[in-house]
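Q: How do we represent a protein-ligand complex in a form that can be generated token by token?
A: Start from the inputs.
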Amino acid sequence: MAMTDYITTFSSAMRNRFGERVHKVAIDAGFTCPNIDGSKGRGGCTFCNNVSFSPHGRESRGVAEQIESGRKVIRKRTGAMKYIAYFQAYTNTYADPVALDKMYREALAEPDVVGLSIGTRPDCVPDAVLDLLAGYRDEGYEIWLELGLQSSFDETLDKVNRLHYFHEYEQAVAGAQQRELQLCTHLIAGLPGEGAAHYSETMDRVLELGTDGFKFHPLHVVKGTMLANEWRRGEFTPMMQQEYVEVVANWIDQAPTEMVYHRLTATASEDILLTPAWCSKKWKVLNAIEKELAWRRVKRQQAAMGFASMLVDRSCGSEVRVA
Ligand code: SF4
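Then emit the structure tokens for the protein with iron/sulfur cluster bound:
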């Protein structure tokens, strides 16, 4: 069995649409973030070390050049011949719409780029940006808006200094849905003060508003962050791997089957990761999630079979459960 036996991954959704493998190419287009440049705050979210976006420093190359070199590596590694330009680093809608259009168009003009995935904060998607994205979609491109919500609880968002709130996510979702844009919602498990009830409530609220996909992350501690100081002072304890696996499996169980999963875990390179160590082993975590999903399916099948057997047995007048 494979992960795709249990969920629709982003790559399987793209294969269904394009009939072949389509891979994201990550781009650092030189954006900053309103939570860093002082327009909303300085210092950023407590867990954000911007180095983790670009381990080799900020990109000096332009969008087309990054796609060209990313494409070469991905083609060699995976054989993919089509690409989604993934504007990943920082807040990728945080600029004047004319400048944004120029950057996004530069990506779309590259050979074999079939669409865009734009990662941003919920408070940075004005109508003009949504209109741009809807325009590319109307031209036939595959367009995803990735919104970093992380938690639906404002008090949690405060604790990690997000400087945006759930109502801003609601507004961004409404704007995207008016234009029928595809949405991918980012959630983090393990945020300070959160537990099973928070995770379940956040998923309920997100599903009630509607989304088309998810990206899940465990909260890990990396060097150079406020969270690292909290962890050193003993004020923050990261999740164990099995806890994270169960949260992800619960989220998947809560969501409708047509949901598209862009990512089920996140890693940080060993040179900046402080804790938990399991966050540096992406495949181990993914295998554990797959195993958990498989086990839950067997349990459900056994329960259904047991229930059916009880019905048959009762119809014969017996009280004995036969399976
Ligand atoms: S919104 Fe994103 S880029 Fe900005 S500080 Fe937070 S994690 Fe970093």
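The pocket of iron/sulfur cluster is lined by residues 33, 35-36, 44-45, 48, 90-91, 121 (CB under 6 Å). The chain is about 40% helix and 15% strand.
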